[in-house]
Amino acid sequence: MTSDARPIDMPQAVRALQATGRVGLQGAPSPGTRALRVLTPSLTVLVVIVAVGGIVFFVVAPMVGVKLGVASYLGFLSALALLVVLLLWLRSALRRQNRYAQAERLPVEIDARGLTLRGVGPVPWTDFAPAQYDWVHVSTGNAYQRRALMHLTESGLVVVNRHLPDELRARLGPVGGFFGNRHHRWISVPRARGISEKEMIELINRARAMFLGQRGPQRGGGTS
């Protein structure tokens, strides 16, 4: 299926899967991706405004008779250096987000070989458990988020974490775990035009049951 094909809805996807043993869907960015693509440029603009404002102040201040000590200038230069580092980080983050958003728009393909999503695959059905909602740890803090995901099975953990290139691995989902035990444990459920997230979970599980001849949730890699 090409990326410019017309989107299909859930009933059409199910019929195609049952009739032909495969279905192709138009990938779509997740709400989280869209939010980050708005937030990151906004933060970049804010940092630039703060940096420019600081520069203008330290240039204009002596002209209007405001005396600034050496400590003030050193503090300003230190703050300016931190802002430059932050700007470089935000620029890198925006590039990563753009690449990921482009990958999300790639076709989602389901067939007997497995699931192809965000340009990765087909990932064999035996490499991941049924799709479900679960609470997972996705940062070094104590916060947990509820995500639509597919836990990696033992075989999937090996393939994803040992054999898949870093760029492709990052498309499957974020790294999880604590410090020295951080690795990829699950795959984020892809989004598709014309199909809701819950419908995508159902469609993936229908296909998995059809091709593997099994039903019911199975846990693979476990939560982070």
Describe the protein's architecture and organization.
This protein has 224 residues and is of the alpha+beta class. The protein has helices at residues 10-20, 31-60, 70-104, 154-163, 166-172, 197-212, and strands spanning 23-25, 27-28, 108-111, 114-117, 120-123, 132-137, 144-151, 186-188, 191-192. The strands form 3 sheets. The protein has a 4-stranded antiparallel sheet with strand order 1-3-4-5. Helix 1 (10-20) runs parallel beside helix 6 (197-212). The model is unreliable at 215-224 (pLDDT under 50).
Following the backbone from N to C, one meets helices and strands in this order, namely: HEEHHEEEEEHHEEH
- How many whole angstroms does the radius of gyration measure? 23 Å
Helix content range of the residues, please? 40-55%
Span between termini = 34 Å
Give the low-pLDDT segments.
Answer: 215-224
Q: How many strand elements?
A: 9
Give the structural class.
alpha+beta
For the largest sheet, list the strands in their spatial order. Answer: 1-3-4-5
- Which shape, going by the Cα principal axes? elongated
How much β-strand is present in the residues?
A: 15-25%
- Kindly report the average pLDDT value: 80
Number of distinct helices:
6
- Main sheet summary: 4 strands, antiparallel
